[in-house]
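The following block was generated as part of the benchmark described in Methods. Ligand: zinc ion.
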Amino acid sequence: MNCLWCMEDRNNNLGWSDFFILNKQNGFCESCLSGLQQLSGKRCSLCSRMTEFEQCSDCEWWRNQFKSDPLEYNYSVFQYNSFIQEIIAKWKYRGDYVLGEVFRPYVYAAFIEKFTTQKKNLIAVPIPLSEERITERGFNQAEMLAGFLPIRQELLLQRVDGEKQSKKSRKDRITTKNPFSLEKMVKNPVLLVDDIYTTGTTLRHAARLLIESGCPEVYALTLIRG
Amino acid sequence: MQQNIMENFSELATVLDGKLLRIEEIPFKSTMIELLLSKKLLDTKPAITKTLLTTTCKRCGNKDNRYFAEIPCKKCSRTHLYCRKCIEMGRVMECESLYYWIGPPAIWPTHQNPSSWEGTLTTAQEKAANRIKTAIINQEKEILVWAVCGAGKTEMLFPGISKALERGMRVCLATPRADVVRELKPRLLQAFEGVSIQALYGGNEDKGKDAQFVIATTHQLLRYQSAFDVMIVDEVDAFPFHADPSLPFAQKRAAKQNGTTIYLTATPRQNLKKAINRKKLPHVFVPVRYHGHPLPIPTLKMCYSLQKDLAASRAPSRFLPWLLKRTNPERQLLIFVPTIDLVNRLKTPLLDLFIAHRLINNETELDAVHASDEKREEKVMAFRQKKLKVILTTTILERGVTFPSVDVAIFHAGHDVFDEAALVQIAGRAGRNANDPNGEVVFFHDGKTEAMLEAIYQIKQMNKRGGF
Ligand SMILES: [Zn+2]
Ligand SMILES: [Zn+2]
Ligand SMILES: [Zn+2]
């Protein structure tokens, strides 16, 4: 069995005591895994960023700017570093689908840790890609991540325009009209799923739309806190 | 517009003939592609094929199941395979096809006097150059040019390349390293002024017109099939060429059926040496450097505390005494270490050492470089321009790059990364210039290895064959 990243044979340095590790299909070797940095210690209760305070400065800014926050909170798994950036680039942009498998146990564990106590009827809603990106890549990374969760996934959201959000300034992004549309109403609480939480704007656009159409609560689970 | 293009087959042929492309790589609109397919100018084949026992990627030749993975594809709404082996060149999937030209072949110009090179060849170079030229004229299948580091192999190719261009042949020079492509491009543009030349390497593909003379990294050859009359493969022994089976596969496919392949190496590996000995591979040997001086022979310096010194981020104990007694302190210095970690850890201690002994005047004269260093090109350039006096590096600078006047030191020459070929190549960095043909090469080690002894034997052997 080879490491999905460096392609070295993972069996090489393993004794019998490590046998159970091999059952974990589609993994990285220990050395590659050690390049992933999980978020730890004190974190912002709203956005998962590592901070000494209960809420980070970003989230405070949000609170002051807009009185109500459509998003209950976001929970992320990994810190942004150059290694995970490389993995994401190959997975998402090169389209190396199977690489995403390495995140499965982490995403699952984060869900168990943070969301199982929520109402039983929580449904996972991945942040969609534009049609153009979908044909380019052949898959949506957020859908893959949502598929790792032990709850129902529904593709409720759609992109309205394909214009690149990342080209706009933060202020622009927050004030521009909602890039999503909703397929149908939801009465269940929703867990939004995406790969990266950067400013939280994208997730909040989606959350607002859901809340306005009657969804009781919206949470977010993201792979990386950018 | 479309009609015009259709009438001008020859222009289309120069773009598409000899290529094997994913649909996204074809520089035409989909309506045009449809038209070409319906006119039987373009054909397709499945990108990935399966038989009972084997799956094959038709782009890179991969048959290793570990390099195939499944994807639930949104394009065709099925779950199927894609190839991970060649994914850096754009992903190919089971539901996709590869496109190739089946119209009239491309016609490349015949040149009267293609070479604008004004230099002259040494006797040794000329002998090899003539042999290469003959191989091209007679359309011999393949020939190996075994030329020592600093023999001037690029110039030896010029007469053969000229002959090919005179005959309207298409030529490719492929090398494993993008650095080398970048370095060769201006030299070849100068040597063949009237000829269309294109340089292809990862991320920086020369988007210009398809050229008669292509300089490319070996990976780029994955996009070609039956394209080149003359295929020159530089550094056949180098990583990743010898380690990755898809590269020789791509190189063989990119050459035309009756084309000539010329392999270049300074340090052939066992398989090529065997082929030579069994007379299965014609070869020409160039044991002399272009300046006529012998290759510098490495000196071994045993350092008992080597591991301890390196662990403590110190240069080996015998490094400083050697450094202070170099025969020509004006020379620049290349220091090779086995790992990126050591490059990072040794930089500051070495800076302190060099400054303390006034071997450099300020911190900007020493720098460190490794494979994933974003400023790699800049640093190599700074060393070439002598802004840097000392460069600390991994094996990435072992070959391909030429500096006129350097001494070379290896810390921990007994490490696995320094195999025989690497050591010969590293030693070959010294004494490259006619004005200073005698650089020093020192292996700091804590126990002789087979590779070290074999490398020194090989260098001495070549000097002997060169008449020294
Ligand atoms: Zn926060
Ligand atoms: Zn492939
Ligand atoms: Zn498909």
